[in-house]
Amino acid sequence: MQELAGRLKALDPEASETLRVISYFDALSAGHANAEVLVRGASMLAGCSAGVASPSLSLRVDERGRRSADPGSPASWPARSLTGGGTVWLERDGGAHANDDMILERVALALSILFERTGPAEALRNPVETLLDPTETVEHRQAAAHSLHLVSTTRYRVITQPASTTTAAAGPAAVMTTVAGAVRAEIVLSTDAVAAERAGIGIAASPADLVRSWLSALTALRLTSDHEPVLYGDDLGSLLLLAEISPAGAPENCDLQSLGVVIRETPRILPMLDTLAASESLRAAAATLGFHHSTVQSRAEELSAKLGFDVRTSRGRTRLSVALALHQLETTHFD
Amino acid sequence: MSASEFHPAPPFDVELAAALAIINEQEPSTITPDMIQPRRAAPTLSLEEILAGRKITHREETFAGPGGNLLVSLFQRNDHSVAGVGVVHTHGGGMIFGDRFSGIETMLDWVEELDAVVVSVEYRLAPEHPDPAPVDDCYAALVWTAENAARLGIDAKKLVIAGGSAGGGLAAGTALLARDRQGPPLAAQMLIYPMLDDRNDTVSSYQIDGKGIWDRGSNDTGWDALLGDRRKTDDVSIYAAPSRATDLSNLPPAFIDVGTAEVFRDEDVAYASTIWASGGDCELHVWPGGFHAYDVLAPFAALSVATQDARLSWLRRTLGL
After folding, report:
1. 8 Å CB contact of B15 and A23
2. Do you know which InterPro entries this protein is assigned to (chain A) (predicted)?
3. What are the C-alpha distances in Å from B75 to residues B64, B71, B115, B211, B273?
4. What pLDDT, in 10s, does the model give residues A249-291?
């Protein structure tokens, strides 16, 4: 079997392939890939040489995927800095390709996490990562809880925020690589007040059960929006189950597809869709949006035709709410 | 044997695992018989794309083969002048897919690095043309190449048969035919993760099921297409399924490579062992965490680069280049 169809090669210079870039580097990070493999991933996806220069290590990979001694000069190439110090760059001649920014962002994040994990000060894995890793053994998670001085009979919550948050962590915290990008997880007492600009607040749980709190907090964070910037896992109920659905496995005729088309056509329609889903009647929606009732009436008719179900009915609003939540889970991404 | 009796397969190499997740979007792990026709229609790289950036000339020739005219593609360096290494290439594709350009990049590297002339055979595919059509065509191409060596810029003393996957099985079968029919002498046989055993009953054949590339089910599809009702019976020749051979003496030096996380691992290791037991010469490389055809599907990966380097190194040592 040496067919050519599935070959992995440089991405299309014109078309954005964000998901492919993210999933590739997430898989490498999950496998604890070393710096050369990460830089080679950037080089391979971009189709040009790439390099990293940092206090702990410098290397360059040529466009054929081979280590090259030839030192690049980072100053003249598109580059990103690493959180622990240092730079990663792509040796792109001519105009930038569609995925260059995303490749640099993801490789910089993966290298930052790697250097943090393997740096002298952080020789051991952050125990928060171990404690919240569902694939870890019970024994390892217990040891991690112990090293964090968590009390087995006390209840805690995991608070999730975008990794870019500038709020200082009050409790033990770690930046986690997730399906939704880089997310900071912080462990606080279940009774602590939470002040954050955008956050998911996990269900209360004992240290042994904090994985569940973490997963609910992550889902909550992914469902936050500008008008609901802080969400509690406790308030989501069965909506938490939606995060376990893979959009790739959804049937082709499900509402997610038609909703995706509507949003692609008119990205600014989202607030109206949110309001329609949340309102008891078109009149209430019109009042919230500050539009005339007849305007909302005709938009609702139009949208119903495009979506393939009537958003003016109770069932239609439910379908819209669920589809919006799925859409948000699919598209929300934190840098 | 059944799957429950075995440990899971060795893990994929980290870099290859990340690549595989993307590759599997287009290349399913399992190929079933109903997928043969649709997948044949899928677009492949054009000759222009294959040759882009390489200083290589391509031309085609045809000659009378056992089942009508046989087409071969010839590749040589633009500046090729001295008769040297000649490689008869039998492409991969599970006996059911592919054409003479499948997996050709490895051959083109040899053209550039070794100044080799490559003769790639458009052999007939199963199930339309079951055994022995494919291996007969490959042997006919070897005979034709040997007879025309001087005209093709090939030193007949440096003739190599090479192929990957099904092409590796066909290369091994062709070498056995050349031995038993007193055909053209071969200087080397390069068996790249070869498909050798129709019985599909090794531990690795059970470990790789529904994962990776060309899994247990795909292997059933390929062998069923080639052998039909004769499969797994005593009516299968050593030229169709070289693993059936018990005497592998008097063969040219062999190179075999294979990944640990693929169906062909155990039959390929066993083939090397049988060559050694027969007093033969074989270099075996078993690459940790490699899935089937990783070198072609993820050519940038460290394991792929090391794999290609090992092949070139062996060719240079074996052919005295």
Report:
1. no
2. PucR_C-HTH_dom (IPR025736), PucR_C-HTH_sf (IPR042070)
3. 20, 13, 10, 35, 34
4. 666 667 888 898 899 888 888 888 988 998 888 888 988 888 8
Q: Is A162 domain-assigned?
A: yes
Return d(Cα A147, Cα A171) in angstroms, integer.
13
Interchain contact, B300 vs A43, CB within 8 Å = yes
Is the pLDDT confidence value at B297 over 70? Answer: yes
Considering only CB atoms, A6 lies closest to which of B26, B102, B305, namely: B26
Interface of B with A (CB under 8 A): 14-15, 17-19, 21-27, 31, 39, 42-45, 91-94, 97-98, 102-103, 164-167, 213-214, 218, 292-293, 296-302, 304-305
How many structural domains comprise chain A?
A: 3
Rounded to a whole number, what is the distance in Å from the CA of A150 to chain B's nearest CA? Answer: 34
By Cβ distance, the residue of A1, A36, A40 closest to B214 is: A1
Regarding whether A258 and A162 lie in a shared domain, the answer is no
Average pLDDT over residues B61-87: 97
Q: Which pLDDT band holds residue A246 (cuts at 50, 70, 90)?
A: low
According to DSSP, the β-strands at A230-232 and B56-65 are unpaired
What top-level class would CATH report for the domain B3-41+56-319? alpha beta
Which tens digits make up the pLDDT trace of B167-180?
999 999 999 999 99
A207 and A306 belong to one structural domain: no
Query: What is the predicted ipTM?
Result: 0.80
Helices (H), ranges, chain B: 14-26, 36-40, 47-51, 104-114, 133-147, 149-152, 166-180, 203-207, 216-227, 265-277, 294-297, 302-319
* Contact (CB<8Å) B17/A27: yes
A147 and A45 in a common domain: no
Tell me which chain B residue has its CA closest to the CA of residue A48: B300
Closest residue in chain B to residue A20, using alpha carbons only: B22
Least Cα distance to A324 among A228, A214, A230, A183 occurs for: A228
B12, B13, B14: best to mutate for the A interface, most A CBs within 10 A: B14
Contacts of A107 in chain B (CB under 8 A): none
